[in-house]
Amino acid sequence: MKKTITSAGLVMLGAVSLHAQRTAYAPAPGLSSTELSKWWSVSASLRGFYDDNYTTAPSRSPGKRESFGFEASPSAAINWTLPQTYLGLSYIYGFRWYDDRRTHQYDQVHQANAKLSHAFNEHYKIDIADSFVSAQEPEIIDRTGGVITVPLRSEGDNIRNTVSGTFTADLTEHIGVVLGYTNNYYDYDQRGTGSYSALLDRVEHLGTANLRWQLAPSTVGILGYQYGVVDYNSPDFLSPFSTLRGRDRNNHSHYGYLGLDHNFNSQLQTSLRVGAQYTEYDHFHNDSVSPYADASVTYTYNPGSYLLLGVRHARNATDIAFISGTTPTLDEETTTVYGSLNHKLTAKLTGSVLAQMQYSQFERGGASGEAEIFLLTGVNLTYDINRFLSAEAGYNYDRLDSDISNRSYTRNRVYIGVRASY
Q1: Residue 80's domain spans which residues?
Q2: pTM of the prediction?
Q3: Which of 327, 402, 405, 414 has the highest count of CB atoms within 10 angstroms of its CB?
Q4: Rounded Cα–Cα distance for residues 129 and 161 (Å)
Q5: 70 belongs to a structural domain
Q6: Looking at residue 69, which CATH number applies to its domain?
Q7: Looking at the 3D structure of the chain, how many domains does it have?
Q8: Residue 351 within any structural domain of the chain
Q9: For residues 318 and 371, what is the distance between their CA atoms, to the nearest angstrom?
Q10: What is the SS3 string spanning the chain?
Q11: pLDDT one-digit tens code per residue, 55-87
Q12: pLDDT for 129-162, tens place per residue?
């Protein structure tokens, strides 16, 4: 079971999605030898923490609350491998208790994941995955392509489910195709006019078709197209002062891009996608053309030590609808820069640093042209007491700077605890 780096599960964008080199089929990519040594694993962590703004309220707001508390998180996983097939199942339960609260003193988080990979032969492969989350923290519940679309906490059992499938085929020795589909489903607990449900309940569809050309043994060129649809489905009004509903922000997008995957060596891999996104809004004559980019670099410089850096630019949903006027804000354009460093300081001590910064600019409506910057950082130290037990401590810092009033905040979290794995 991979170790959690931050107390709230800081979301980072994915690393290189498709390797440049043609390699032998690996039935369970990304799993360690320990995880593959038996078909099941269990773990549990217990942490004490201090959070100086667990409500993510504005810095000078009376709603800002701080609290000590503890978190317990058991988990279980199954990794079943055959010569051409891999099946993975995992479930993580999180229980977080806050001393400051007088009612509803605890949060519960559920995360379930399933993955199936099957290689029909060396030329054809299929991958299917499902990820279910029920949570309250913004970096866990709401993300689109790694972008956190809602930087504020949402009370209740909010649900996100992501289903994805990818089919990879080698048509010739040098040419291949990748066909994929991703479905994101969001259902917020808060109901009513202007609620998170009205603003964000939706289904997102994304179809992908990539033509891949083997330019060299370690280099692949990509010609790609994606078609995305965002269907909002709440019957509630976006605002008490408007007759518009969530579905009035429906839109669809066409993405066209060129890309390159290159492995400098077995330790250093890069991935690049650059193009444009054309978005049409179903109920408004406000089509938009914006840049699209997705790039990452992964460097594994020692066993257990790696560096990941990346950047992504695209449009995404937003929880902002009406600030003024009669036209709603339709979405936002976001540039995300992210990084992750995992370093083995000694044979037993590992240090990790995560950072993600988002710059978002709102599209249309009273918030048009307004922007905000969302920063998340985390530092973690893990000491392996033995092969089954480890101690960990860490610190998280979040900061939102928004041009929209009564929205900006800072948040500091520290934790210390133990983890048992078998």
Answers
A1: 33-421
A2: 0.89
A3: 402
A4: 11
A5: yes
A6: 2.40.160
A7: 1
A8: yes
A9: 12
A10: CCCCCCCCCCCCCCCCCCCCCCCCCCCCCCCCHHHHCCCEEEEEEEEEEEECCCCCCCCCCCCCCCEEEEEEEEEEEEEEECCCEEEEEEEEEEEEEECCCCCCCEEEEEEEEEEEEEECCCCEEEEEEEEEEEECCHHHHCEECCEECCCCCCCCCEEEEEEEEEEEEECCCCEEEEEEEEEEEEECCCCCCCCHHHHHCEEEEEEEEEEEEEEECCEEEEEEEEEEEEEECCCCECCCCCCCEHHHHCEEEEEEEEEEEEECCCCEEEEEEEEEEEEEECCCCCCEEEEEEEEEEEEEEECCEEEEEEEEEEEECCCCCCCCCCCCCCEEEEEEEEEEEEEECCCCEEEEEEEEEEEEEEECCCCCCCEEEEEEEEEEEEEECCCCEEEEEEEEEEEEEECCCCCCEEEEEEEEEEEEEC
A11: 999 988 889 999 999 999 999 999 999 999 999
A12: 999 999 999 888 876 678 898 999 999 999 999 9
Residue 18 lies in a domain: no
Tokens coding 216: 């060299």
* pLDDT bucket at 326, cuts 50 / 70 / 90: confident
How is residue 226 written in tokens?
């994606």
Which two tokens mark 366? Answer: 């009273």
Q: Give 265-302 pLDDT, tens digit per residue.
A: 999 999 999 999 999 999 888 799 999 999 999 999 99
- Tell me if 26 is assigned to some domain: no
